[in-house]
Amino acid sequence: MDKLKKFGRIYNQIEEKVISWSFLILVALIFLQVIYRYVLHDAITWSEELCRYIYVWECWLGISLVQHEGRHLQLTFLIEKMGPKKKKVTKICVDLVCFVTAIMLIYYGLQMALLTASLGTSSPAMGIPVVVYYLCMPIGCALYVIRIIIEIITLIADKKGVAWNG
């Protein structure tokens, strides 16, 4: 269990840094584009496309971080009335449903990415293969699955009940 906690801490740090740095790059690119457009009366042709790629990647990578923080959209009015043991069982059941959904998204996301790769298309402004764009869903969901597995193992190992929000 200690190795799992250590792995979880390292995983959290890497995930937070990647998302934070990508957000910083996104904001800097948008700021630079505004400066170029309104001050220099010019445009950076590739920045909008790159920002779109970064934003979509952040969204799919962020589902794992949101799972860790217990901040996914949820209705808690029934959960709040449950005892600690029922909360724990309910949380494990919800995690299992999320797990199955994420596995399906990985499968269909890979199918889409493979189809896109076989077509050999690339983005118009930067010339990046479009498959890079489509890989964000299966990769983000794979990281989400890892997070769910860690959470389920932690919940099962915990002899007490569980606080619903993580």
Brief summary:
This protein has five helices and no strands. The chain is mainly alpha-helical and 166 residues long.
Describe the structure.
The protein contains five helices and no strands. The chain is mostly helical and 166 residues long. Helix 1 runs antiparallel to helix 2, helix 2 runs parallel beside helix 5 and helix 3 packs antiparallel against helix 5.
What is the count of helical runs?
A: 5
Principal-axes geometry comes out as elongated
**Quaternary status of these chains?**
single chain
The largest sheet is: none
Which terms summarize this structure?
about 0% strand, 5 helices, mainly alpha, about 170 residues
Strand and helix layout:
Blueprint: H1 2-38, H2 47-69, H3 84-119, H4 130-134, H5 136-157
